[in-house]
Design a protein that fits this description.
mainly alpha; Major facilitator superfamily domain-containing protein 9
Length: about 425
Amino acid sequence: LFLPSFQDLFGVSMVVPLMNLHIKSLGASHTVAGIIGSLYGIMQLFSSTFVGCWSDIVGRRYSLLACILLSALGYFLLGTSTTVFLFAISRVPVGIFKHTLSISKALLSDLVSERDRPLVMGRFNAASSVGFILGPVVGGYLTELEDGFYLTSFICASIFLLNAGLVWMLPWSEENTGNKEHEQGNRGTDGFSAKANCDLHLKSATNGAMASNSLFQTAWIQIATVLKRIKGIACSDLWDIFLVRLLMSVAILLYYSNFTLALEERFGVKPLFAGYLMSYSSALGVLAGCLLGPITRLYQHNTYRLLLHSSTLTCSLILLYASALSIWMVILSSTFLAFSTTIGRTCIIDLELTIGGNEASGTLLGVGQSVTSVGRIVAPLLSGVAQEFSPCGPPSLGVGLALGAILIMNANKQKYCSHGNVKLKNQ
């Protein structure tokens, strides 16, 4: 799973930095380019929870293969986009089904113990980040060639097809993950554990229906079960965790929203330097993922405390960047921010799974991805308004949002510290 995740972000990061230039070369106005750019985030918002829950119902392998192949179709269409309309059409399958990393994380959470989960997730994020470091460099070289964008898109689609082959050949079975979920359900004594066991029976019934009933009946059973699980999440008491995730996501997105432009306006540095600085931060993020194991042991596997401290550090570093008087202070903040954001991102996922229950990991990760998608939609709007006042406006607003997340975590300290006692309400 680590190799497909690396290749996933490697392929995507080759194409994404070039998309804005390509759509403008097709004759799109700034407004149209912005609308189409938001299309991806909007579709991710509505599809993340559904696809994540669908993976709980039909199994990780089937859903992961479907998402990889349909994402490959989207990037293949992108490679044929000679008009703005075709460009917009190509973003539809990617926006709906590009949840390969979320499903892979759900699979990892099924296969590893709760104690080892932060370490494994950290290494998974590190492998993904390596692809994000190398992708823009390769994409930049390819785009210099004639029809470079189309070539880059076709290479990205080919990488997704290769990933589909790797996932198909992986030596894992749904029965192993299903047995693990069943054992976790038997150990639980609350209402959600009973609900999880019921959902496992529904999953078996669904698989049986796939063999004996019509395609329409099978699809209806899957949709009904997915909606039931989404309702369970919506009526749970996990709202504060997802609110923390939203606030921290928007805060970090605001930090990066005008990063290149702000450095040029404030310190007169070229965009090339900003690109190198972002690659440097991504490389440090990989190192942070590798060091997550020793760090969690240092914190005695207390995910809440580690998340609180990393979020506090993130808030302080964004404040340092917003008030920086020299480029060296920016470099200092970027250095430590790479560590704090990587650790915080892993901890919030682990806290969602620990409190929400590992039996519905796909659904929980899907909801979390939807929350992040909301941040991707909201952050550019907030950044545009804040930037009207000052180049430091977006990160300064990010400091306020991060501070709000820290206050929420402190207000719910008892809940976070008693991981095993808080589960989803029985439906």
